[in-house]
Automatic annotation (TrEMBL):
Pathway entry: Carbohydrate metabolism; D-ribose degradation; D-ribose 5-phosphate from beta-D-ribopyranose: step 2/2
Carbohydrate kinase PfkB domain segment(s): 6-293
Protein keywords: ATP-binding, Carbohydrate metabolism, Cytoplasm, Kinase, Magnesium, Metal-binding, Nucleotide-binding, Potassium, Transferase
Origin species: candidate division WOR-3 bacterium JGI_Cruoil_03_51_56
E.C. designation(s): 2.7.1.15
Active site residues of this protein: D251
Protein name per UniProt: Ribokinase
Catalytic activity of the protein: D-ribose + ATP = D-ribose 5-phosphate + ADP + H(+)
Chain's gene name: rbsK
InterPro entries linked to this entry: Carboh/pur_kinase_PfkB_CS, PfkB_dom, Ribo/fructo_kinase, Ribokinase, Ribokinase-like
Organism placement in taxonomy: Bacteria, Bacteria division WOR-3
Cofactor(s) needed for function: Mg(2+)
GO molecular function: ATP binding; metal ion binding; ribokinase activity
Family: Belongs to the carbohydrate kinase PfkB family. Ribokinase subfamily. Belongs to the carbohydrate kinase pfkB family.
Positions of substrate binding: V15, M16, D17, G43, K44, G45, F46, N47, E144, D251
Length: 313
């Protein structure tokens, strides 16, 4: 760790979530009456940045919002959380990114998103944050912003020996051309299956693991997570909680993982902590409101134990 607190830079998305709750998945052509609606701040970059901040890290977010009402709400929230907003740019040509998560009774969701201003993040804007990246312990990336900016940020981090963690979501055409020379690759099981051959998570992880990766970590919801590195495969069970909304569970997991790795914790200890962060995020409706702080995670871990899944992960 380079300072007294873990220092993390997130180059990522900010997306306003229009969240619907529904009693079941609609069939093609079916008009379904929803059960509730909420408007929440979200996006993988924003969620992961907020998660890291609430877990005690000093966080800088690099991204784009529109010069609109949604953009103003994001800036207000970032300042309220004590985040460095110097590198969150207001875009005059595109509006703030939007998404429509639909949450079903089991807490699972389906999401349609339109990135809008997120895709206009430029290489030069990443360069403007080079000093922040250079002094960071870890850089977090996803695929919800301009891929050229993400890849360039990875190269900047490597130049300064800053760890890089990539959440390869959403998987899209062309992402296979990304420079995969990151330190930690953290897909969920659906993404891992799309990116690698095989029938099981351990096969996907093995297929994704190449030098100079330190580890592949595959998240599997309530079943926990799988780690693959030079020493082999390990499985870490998750926590059984009453799912209300899983929208930000993966982002909370990645925030927990990043904060622990930034403090020089081993990946195994980091994954155990991250599983607790992800589980807690399932217990509250809405992305940003569900992301836990450090005291909540510590209390949860003191009172709950991981439960091995009957399914092989």
């Amino acid at each position: 760790m380079k300072g007294s607190n873990p220092k993390i830079v997130v180059v990522g998305s900010l997306v306003m979530d229009f969240v619907f709750r529904a009693g079941h998945r609609p069939k093609p052509g079916e008009t379904l009456r929803g059960e509730s609606f909420g408007l929440f701040l979200g996006g993988k970059g924003f969620n992961q940045a907020i998660g890291c901040k609430r877990l005690g890290a000093d966080v800088t977010l690099v991204g784009h919002v529109g010069a609109d009402l949604f953009g103003r709400r994001f800036m207000e929230k970032l300042r309220q959380e004590g985040m460095n907003t110097k590198f969150v740019m207001k875009d005059r040509q595109e509006g703030t990114g939007v998404a429509c998560p639909v949450v079903f009774p089991d807490g699972q969701n389906s999401i349609i998103g339109v990135p809008r201003a997120n895709m206009r993040l430029s290489v030069s804007e990443v360069d403007a944050a080079e000093d922040e990246i250079a002094s960071a312990d870890i850089l977090l990336l996803q695929f919800e912003v301009n891929p050229e900016a993400s890849e360039h940020a990875s190269l900047v981090a490597q130049r300064h020996s800053t760890l890089v963690m990539l959440d390869p979501a959403p998987v899209h055409i062309g992402c296979e051309a990304f420079d995969w020379s990151v330190d930690y690759l953290v897909p969920n099981e659906v993404e891992a299956n799309m990116l690698a051959e095989g029938d099981r998570p351990d096969e996907w992880a093995r297929g994704l693991f190449t030098e100079p990766l330190k580890a592949v970590v595959i998240t599997m919801g309530a079943a926990g997570a799988l780690v693959f590195d030079k020493t082999g495969t390990r499985e870490y069970p998750g926590y059984q909680v009453g799912n209300k909304d899983t929208t930000a569970a993966g982002d909370a997991f990645r925030a927990g993982l990043a904060v622990m790795l930034a403090q020089d914790k081993c990946v195994d200890e980091a994954v155990g902590f991250a599983n607790a962060c992800g589980a807690l995020a399932c217990t509250v409706f809405g992305a940003e409101p569900s992301i836990p702080d450090l005291s909540a995670v510590r209390a949860f871990m003191a009172n709950h134990k991981p439960v091995p899944s009957e399914e092989h992960i």
